[in-house]
Design the sequence.
């Protein structure tokens, strides 16, 4: 069966949206709007797998929505909503809790990183997190999922779940007249020069919301002065920039800054090195500050303007949830039939 080409992706409302979220995900969400029907979700149920202050969570949900809109996602042509408002996410996740195997989840590296040493004390939700993520995507039978490199393993699990569901229930899927396979195997869209943006302080660590040093990341809410000072303080090495991509090997900080420049300017690392190779970091950093302020400044300003009008944001989310729910309800009705849950 041919599935309709559809994009689904999500961002957690856990504060401090940063350049990694923008270049690895949100900027690419914007670019896909002309080629696919898209659903962009604020995944608040994922956020509560670790403790969230309720007041702060509400603020963050609106802030991620504002970032989507400020970056250029069109909520009229596509669907922007928050996960908790469409009950199908939690319902399908439960079905997937019964499809996915413990052994599969035990291999998830992000759970190990997030749970840390005190694994006994991690929430059950944090452990089952990838099943909910599979439900997000498959609830809409989405075929393509743009994400940063760090989500690759979760996407592979979503494909395994879809495959196992299709196999386990194959006879029932056919008996219910729903074709030969019910769920598509969603394709990850990972790539470009900024699929993994690294910390500005340590090129071996991912740029992350949870890094205690604010200097390690550029936040989407940073003003021009903050962006300039963080780029200028970014760690580098003493060598000039190489002329070829090969020369970036073993120089993670240089590679990161070149990748950021390439992604912001919509080119590749080769082109960036063709312009800046052989030069000093100070010159390159000056150009990067100018580019980053030029690209991110207007987004930050628009986010601020939007966040000041929560009524508008809430209306966008409500409208999106209504449209998402209509799609989700069809899937859940069919899934219940397939699994044998009597209505
Ligand atoms: P989250 O909220 O951690 O991150 C949102 C998106 O930003 C990407 N990202 C990065 N990309 C490049 N460099 C970085 N340093 C960097 N840091 C984050 C992430 O890869 C992600 O694409 N589990 C997901 C949210 C989610 C989801 C989904 C995504 C829930 N359900 C369904 C796709 C489909 C997450 O925690 O993303």
Sequence:
């Amino acid at each position: 069966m041919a599935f309709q080409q559809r994009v689904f992706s999500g961002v957690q409302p856990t504060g401090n949206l940063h350049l990694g979220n923008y270049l690895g995900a949100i900027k690419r969400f914007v670019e896909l709007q002309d080629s696919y029907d898209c659903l962009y979700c604020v995944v608040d149920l994922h956020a509560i797998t670790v403790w969230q202050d309720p007041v702060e969570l509400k603020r963050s949900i609106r802030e991620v929505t504002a970032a989507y809109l400020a970056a250029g996602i069109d909520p009229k042509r596509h669907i922007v909503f928050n996960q908790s408002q469409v009950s199908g996410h939690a319902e399908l996740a439960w079905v997937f809790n019964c499809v996915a195997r413990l052994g599969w989840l035990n291999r998830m590296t992000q759970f190990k990183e997030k749970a840390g040493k005190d694994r006994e004390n991690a929430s059950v939700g944090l452990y089952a997190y990838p099943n909910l993520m599979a439900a997000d995507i498959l609830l809409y039978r989405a075929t393509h999922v743009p994400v940063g490199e760090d989500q690759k393993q979760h996407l592979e699990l979503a494909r395994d779940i879809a495959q196992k569901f299709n196999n386990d229930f194959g006879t029932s899927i056919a008996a219910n007249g729903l074709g030969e396979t019910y769920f598509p195997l969603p394709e990850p869209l990972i790539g470009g020069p900024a699929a993994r943006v690294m910390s500005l302080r340590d090129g071996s660590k991912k740029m992350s919301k949870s890094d205690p040093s604010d200097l390690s990341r550029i936040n989407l809410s940073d003003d021009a002065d903050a962006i300039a000072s963080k780029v200028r303080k970014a760690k580098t090495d003493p060598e000039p920039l190489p002329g070829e991509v090969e020369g970036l090997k073993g120089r993670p900080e240089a590679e990161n800054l070149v990748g950021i420049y390439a992604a912001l300017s919509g080119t590749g690392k080769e082109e960036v090195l063709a312009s800046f190779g052989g030069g000093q970091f100070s010159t390159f950093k000056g150009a990067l500050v100018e580019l980053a302020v030029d690209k991110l400044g207007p987004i930050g300003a628009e986010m601020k303007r939007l966040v000041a009008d929560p009524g508008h944001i809430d209306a966008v989310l409500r409208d999106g949830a209504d449209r998402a729910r209509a799609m989700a309800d069809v899937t859940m009705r069919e899934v219940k039939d397939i699994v044998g849950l009597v209505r």
Summary: The first helix runs from residue 19 to 32. The CA atoms of residues 27 and 137 lie 19 Å apart. Strands lie at 6-11, 37-42, 79-82, 144-146, 187-189.
